[in-house]
Design a protein that fits this description.
With 205 residues, the chain is an alpha/beta fold. The chain has 7 helices and 10 strands.
Length: 205
Amino acid sequence: MTSEEIIAEKLLQAGVLKISPNEFFTWTSGLKSPIYCNNRILLSQPMYRDLIKSELSRLIFEHYPDAEVIAGVSTAGIPWASLVADSLKMKLVYVRPEPKAHGLKNQIEGEILKGESVVVIEDLISTGKSSLGVINALKAADAKVEALVSIFNYNFESTLHKFEDINIKSHALSNFFSLLKMLLHKNIYSESEIAIVEAWRLQQH
C-alpha cells in the first residue's frame, strides 16, 4: 500500500473515519455524506497523535525546508499546527477564516512579518472555504503562503480548482482516493458499495 493508504487505514482503525454507503451521515453544513471524518479523536490517542504529528512534520520538512511560519486554521487546525511548529522549532500563528467581530477584530493571532514564508495546516479539506479565508488573510498581511497541508482531503474537484486558481499547492497525508483503494484492497466494502461512495464525491460542487 502507499503511504496515503496506510494513513487511511490508521484513521479507520483509530475511529476517525466512518463509512456508511447505505445510510449517509449529516455534516454540520447539512450535507449528506457516506463518509464522516473526525480528526479531533486523534488528539486523545497518543500513539496516533504522534504518528500524524510526525508525518505532518516530515512532509513540511521535506517539501518546504525554508518555511518560517506554521499557520493553523482555527479551530481544528490549531492543535496540529502547534505540535508541528514545536517539532520543527518554527514560529506559530493561528488564523480565523474571518476577523473577530469584537475586541481588536484580529484575524491572525500571533506575530507574522511581511514576506515570511508560511505553511498552513488544516485538519480536513472538503469545500476548502475556511482554508481559502485563511490563505487570503495571510496574503493580505503580505506573507508568502507556500502550501496548505492537511490530514485528510475529500478530493472534491471544485476544491482542487479553487486552490489551483490561486496557485496554492495542497498536500494531504491521506485522501478520498487512497481511502477507497485501501477499502477495496482490504475487502472491507464491496465494489458496489465503493461505487456509491465514489458517485457521491462526483456530485459535489
